[in-house]
Amino acid sequence: SGPDKEMARALPWLIFAATLLLLASIKSSTASRMAKPGCQETCGNLTIPYPFGIGQGCFYSEGFDVSCENNRVFMHNSSSQMEIYNISLAGGQTRVSTFIASKCFYSNSNNTDGWVSSNTADFFKISTKANKLTAVGCNTLAFLGGYNEHSVGAGCFSMCADKQSVDHSGQCSGMGCCQTSIAPNLSSSNISFDDRFDNSEVRGFNPCSYAFVAEQDWFRFEASYLEDNKFTEKFNNGVPTVLDWVAGHENCDEAGNDMSSSACISKNSHCIMSPNATGYLCTCSDGFAGNPYLEGGCQGR
């Protein structure tokens, strides 16, 4: 009977300890949840936080719908050919793959002249702070035309008369590669080449020119990119481009902090203006972490 008494005395403590463990696990699972309840949260190595989501009812609005195909995440679906590499809730940014425009001049007259255009959904813009227009080639003038309530444009020129005049420092200095800033709040863009310049004079070492909008800190120029099709062979899945996104175009006073009109629906969350785009984002209040776009998403640390 001695051991039975000991067990009877210990039982309430065991139940209490088990309850504490259960509460702790419920709290941690709530704190770590980033997707809407009942929705797929990960695809491959990528966490997909709401307002992004896979499938009907799992995303905030058009543009935030993504697909998971063969452990890869795409904007809308793979037909967009915009693979998502990263989603930042705090910064309101997502890193996606975009196309490369190319123009080639071959001695057999089998010449090509390509352009690339893109359009973003309502709450998304091509980031002016994070990206640069980059052109690779000799005797190459590339343009980025676009629209942000105005028709805007930018261009850069790269010149190298022979192989010896190509810059080998890795920088885009205008000798084999050039870069320039792009206009803010672009919702559509078109990359093209000026027809007055081509690779006919330099085709022996540089038959093709390329142009793209990519994350400025990502690209490092290599002189070998000028040879044959080495550039497109290396980057056949496109280049990484940063998109800025917002939860709404209003400012925080207009959006309000009440649940009926604001996307910031978690307790202990509030609205902040995006540092990169026109509109607002949501963030957890000091001392809280998680997803401010979900009910109960911000949990105490």
From TrEMBL:
Q: Give every Wall-associated receptor kinase galacturonan-binding domain span.
A: 39-96
Q: What is the membrane topology noted in the UniProt record heading this document?
A: Single-pass membrane protein
| Chief location | membrane
GO MF, one example: polysaccharide binding
Q: Which GO terms describe its cellular component?
A: membrane
Where found, per UniProt? Membrane
Alphabetical UniProt keywords = Signal
Which residues does UniProt assign to the signal peptide?
1-31
Give the PANTHER family listed for this entry: OSJNBA0016N04.9 PROTEIN (PTHR33491)
Q: What is this protein called?
A: Wall-associated receptor kinase galacturonan-binding domain-containing protein
